[in-house]
């Protein structure tokens, strides 16, 4: 298993993984290409035998719920293909994201999970993340 930064050559396979996590918007190539060009964001992939089997996207945010420092490293997206789960790949991806954030001066890391994503919530807890808040968001067309 090899954890490494996302490269432009990875984008087609990467979009497939992103779509598995975000079916409604994961295939946005422009968003991924923008991610590759920004200094305040990064993505890491897990590669096995030439195939991408997982990823993590991380960004710097000025604040995050429950955090007291700034900037904060933020796990924007984290996914391991089902056949590869339970082997420590998710942990290695998050460690790469945390190292990236630490190298940019972050002293805290934050993330979120949908209320119904119990697997994601448990994965965060196993890596030492503490739940700090439950949030229901609203919107209205004007």
UniProtKB/TrEMBL annotation:
Instruction: Give UniProt keywords alphabetically.
Output: Acyltransferase, Antibiotic resistance, Transferase
- EC class name: transferase
A molecular function (GO) held by this record is: aminoglycoside 6'-N-acetyltransferase activity
Identification of the protein by name = Aminoglycoside N(6')-acetyltransferase type 1
A biological process (GO) of this protein is: response to antibiotic
What reaction does this catalyse?
kanamycin B + acetyl-CoA = N(6')-acetylkanamycin B + CoA + H(+)
Show the CDD domains listed in the entry: NAT_SF
Please name the taxonomic classification of the source.
Answer: Bacteria, Thermotogati, Deinococcota, Deinococci, Thermales
In this chain the N-acetyltransferase domain maps to: 1-142
Q: Coiled-coil segments, which residues?
A: none
Could you give the subunit structure recorded for this chain? Homodimer.
UniProt organism field: Thermus scotoductus
């Amino acid at each position: 298993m090899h954890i490494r930064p996302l490269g432009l050559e990875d984008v087609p396979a990467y979009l497939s993984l992103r779509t598995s996590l975000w079916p409604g918007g994961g295939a946005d190539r422009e968003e991924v290409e923008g991610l590759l060009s920004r200094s305040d964001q990064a993505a890491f992939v897990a590669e096995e035998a030439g195939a991408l089997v997982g990823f993590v996207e991380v960004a710097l945010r000025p604040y995050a719920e429950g955090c007291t420092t700034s900037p904060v490293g933020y796990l924007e997206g984290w996914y391991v293909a089902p056949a590869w789960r339970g082997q420590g790949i998710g942990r290695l991806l998050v460690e790469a994201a945390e190292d990236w954030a630490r190298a940019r001066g972050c002293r805290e890391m934050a993330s979120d999970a949908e209320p119904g994503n119990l697997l994601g919530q448990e994965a965060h807890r196993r890596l030492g993340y503490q739940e700090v808040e439950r949030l229901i968001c609203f919107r209205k067309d004007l």
